[in-house]
Amino acid sequence: MVAKNQEEIEIIKQELLRSTYSEGNSNSEEQDIGKSSSSDSEEINSFRYPAVILIGNAGVGKSTLGNWLLGYHGDGGPFETKASCDPVTLEPQTALLEISDRKYNLIDTPGLFDVKDDARSDIALTKLANTINHCSYGIQTIIFVVKKSFGKEIDRQIQAIKGFLGEKALDHILIAFTHVNMDQTMDRTVMKKSFNSRMINFLNKIDNRWIVSPNPDLFTLEDDIVYTNVYEAKDIIESFPEAYTTDMFNRVRRAREEAEEAARIKAQEERLRACEEEISRLRNNAGIQAARNEAEKQCFSLDTIVTLEGGKKIEMSEVRVGDKVACVGSNNKVEYSEVYLIAHVDKDKQAEFLKVDYTKPDGTTGCLNLTSEHHLFVNGSFDYAHNIRPNDSQIQILYKDELIPVRVTNVSKEIRKGYIGIFTRTGTIIADDVFCSCYSSCPPYQNIIHYIMAPIRFTTLFHKSNYCDSEIHPYLKFLYNNYKSITGAF
Length: 490
Ligand SMILES: Nc1nc2c(ncn2[C@@H]2O[C@H](COP(=O)(O)OP(=O)(O)OP(=O)(O)O)[C@@H](O)[C@H]2O)c(=O)[nH]1
Ligand SMILES: [Mg+2]
Description:
Radius of gyration: 45 Å
Protein name: Hint domain-containing protein
Organism: Rhizophagus irregularis (strain DAOM 197198w) (Glomus intraradices)
Distance between the termini: 71 Å
Bound molecules: guanosine-5'-triphosphate, magnesium ion
Structural class: alpha+beta
Keywords: Coiled coil, Nucleotide-binding
CATH topology of the largest domain: Rossmann fold
Domain Hint: 297-398
Strand order of the largest sheet: 2-3-1-4-5-6
Region (Disordered): 20-41
CATH architecture of the largest domain: 3-Layer(aba) Sandwich
């Protein structure tokens, strides 16, 4: 059984060690008779005789039977008894029991198996375990007290005892039935007839070691049947050739602890697995972040359509240096400008793109995929793509050979494979019919960037660039890294 509240149990264990068996000091056997007032601190960890332990659910009549066995009336002995909804015996109590000159420590225990409260059952089992560990002379008999009407539950409860004390404990078990009526108490044969087959089977397994604990409301100490039943119980207690030892209990306990440890390791492994999944999720996210970072320096999706002089439309990935593509000139008119540089191109790297959707005047839709730092013409000037707001931002599109304004209907993010950045001599380009800048990353001051690009535009007039690499062109890299110091004005 797995403890619900391990901390609480540990505290109780410590308290038990400190208090339960150290409520005073007695070496005299007279003081041992009746309620225990145990030994000095050196002796805390042991009883002096084999133990007879009363166990069972709360309120079944354990303390009452203990009193009968000690020679008192069931409700009048050293063990407190009470008709109460709350458990009465809260800590293990001990008393000296003498049978034919042999002495035993009779131990009354708190109720086990609280069906409504597993945590309380665990605490009670822990207290019982602690008690058993004090039984250095072994356990002569485990008296399992059950209400007769609870016979149906016997299997479940015996299973719990076996799990806790081990199979061998059954060899030391004595069943005591309580809440038995007058006739059944008086005559064992009448009682036997009331057993169902499951009970008969079980009792057979334990060599019919059972007794009836007389109802304290029906019987007195003077009644012969009380004597007979108590005698019978004592007879059985004496009959065990050897005591069940704590070694056996400790073996079972170790096995149980190993099973609990295995369960703990398994739970730990599951937690570890969950952590690994989380790490892999984070790694994945980091991958997306890397793609995002990468994207900051990128430009267009490879499949972005551009229009060549003559009207032919091709994907940007097919554009070659020297091609003339549709762009927007300084007079704000559509013209064709030479591609002088492919700033960078990569067919495999993933990058995060913004997908900008718009609707044309004829109702058809279009979209442009570009990276968030890329510049395009929005609301009358160049701005970063990430500043576009659906329904609010107005972009310029090429429609029937003319630039017209349309509203952006939606902006979403997409991870796509591959990217390309191409530069035209005008520094602008019509990509997927949308008027865009060729530039990105720096603040969107189109004219200033265009001016800064002059050296490379100039040199490529004489030396055609054949640069084609996934790394951005070195000159641009230098510009992007130093744009603040170069431009001062930004
Ligand atoms: N009807 C009937 N009542 C009984 C019998 N045995 C005990 N009682 C009564 O049941 C009540 C509880 O008995 P206890 O002996 O205190 O029960 P317990 O198992 O020690 O209870 P906890 O200490 O709370 O676990 C008392 O009022 C007893 O008089 C029995 O065989 N029949
Ligand atoms: Mg009790």
